[in-house]
Write a structure and sequence with these properties.
Blueprint: H1 5-8, H2 12-17, H3 21-26, H4 30-35, H5 39-44, H6 48-53, H7 57-62, H8 66-71, H9 75-78
Region (Disordered): 1-79
């Protein structure tokens, strides 16, 4: 009865052990790459908004004492 020998030759269970499928999923470093998405952090460091607040150019215009210098044109008095 070589029939019992046939089932013993069922190497299929060994092939199941070679199911590296779960291991490949473990190697799915894609989620880790997402954590490394420092782009969001780079946006937080967008100090450009702060630089705009420091736009003292508007203040420099207010200090345009040139208009005052014109009022001080005492040249009219000399005439």
């Amino acid at each position: 009865g070589s029939r019992p020998k046939a089932p013993t030759a069922g190497t299929r269970p060994e092939t199941t052990t070679t199911g590296t499928g779960p291991e490949t999923t473990a190697a799915g470093t894609k989620p880790e790459s997402t954590t490394a998405g420092t782009k969001a952090e780079s946006t937080t460091t967008g100090t450009k908004a702060e630089s705009t607040t420091a736009g003292t150019k508007a203040e420099s215009t207010t200090t345009g004492t040139k208009a005052e210098s014109t009022t001080a044109g005492t040249t009219l008095d000399t005439t």
